[in-house]
Each structure stands twice: as structure tokens, then as C-alpha cells.
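Please go through the sequence and C-alpha cells given here and tell me how the chain folds. Record follows.
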Amino acid sequence: MSNWKKKYLSFDQKVFSILDIEDFKAKCTFETLAKGEQLTNAGEIYTDLFYLEEGLVCCTTFTDGRTLWFEKGHHFFTCAQSFVYQTRSNKEITCLEPCSIYRLPKSQLRALCDADPTWAKWWIHLLEHEYVKLQFFQEEFLHKSAADRYSLLLEMVPNLSSRIPLKNIASFLGISQVSLSRIRAGKQ
């Protein structure tokens, strides 16, 4: 993987050069969840920003079970549409491994940003970083062959096949499990 890809796909240390991780954690609620446990359910309004300290989570659509994204330790996530517009989500977030998670309510995040320019600067930087990750995904991931997308996913998530069920990998790549098996066997 090229250096620029590593930079934009890895955790951005600048986020916590603006705001110390301990300051962030102090404002959050902490919880641990077991492998297979649901963090969020379809039909809920996502009111929290999550910080995954350890573990691996997967977001799927409730309606058709498509896997939309994975997030590994030391990253932030939420269901953006529900979080921003406060609408019910059709997505579920499930722990694929035991997880240590911090959650910060949107109302508290807004109050912190309004009261303290450091929090506002941190939030802007985090949104910029997430936007760049989205742009990378659109430009570098969507237009590749399934085999190339699988190779890139292997680089992004260490020990991929032991951490993520094959059905979720295949769904994320937009292929059948049979096609994924062929790619993994080198038969493409």
C-alpha cells in the first residue's frame, strides 16, 4: 500500500494532538461489548458518536443484510445520516470481536464545541479526516475488480479472514461467497 493510502486509512494522530484522548474519554460513557453483540439496532435514531478503542465492528443494512463498512480499534464511527439528521436508521452495528467503546452524545458534543474552540477545532479536523477516507473509498476502492478490492481490504484489516466472517467480506465486496472463495484460492 502506498504511503498516502496508509496515511489516510490509518488513525490520524493529529486528531489527538488537538485534543488529548484522555480529555475525550473523560466526557464519554465507556462500555464493553461481547463478540456478536449489537451496538445499535435498525429503527433507532443514532444520537452518539462512538470511539472504538479495541475490537472490530461491522455495519449492515437491516433491509437486505448488506455489509457497508468495518471499523477497527482506534477509530471513530456512527451512522452519519441518522446522527446528523436525527432520523431512524436502517443500519445495525455489530461487534465482530470483543469491543471497548466510548460513546459521546451528539448534544454533549455540540455543547462542548460551542463552549470550547479546542473541541470545535478537533471536531472539524475529525470530519475532514473522515471525508478524506470516504473520498479514498470512492476513488480507490469502488472502481477496482473484486480481486483488487479484496487485496486492498487485506491491507486495511490485518488478519482479515480470522476477524471477519466470509459472508460479511463477500457482501462488502459486492460478490458472492463462491466468488470470494475463488479469489482467495487464486482462481479469480
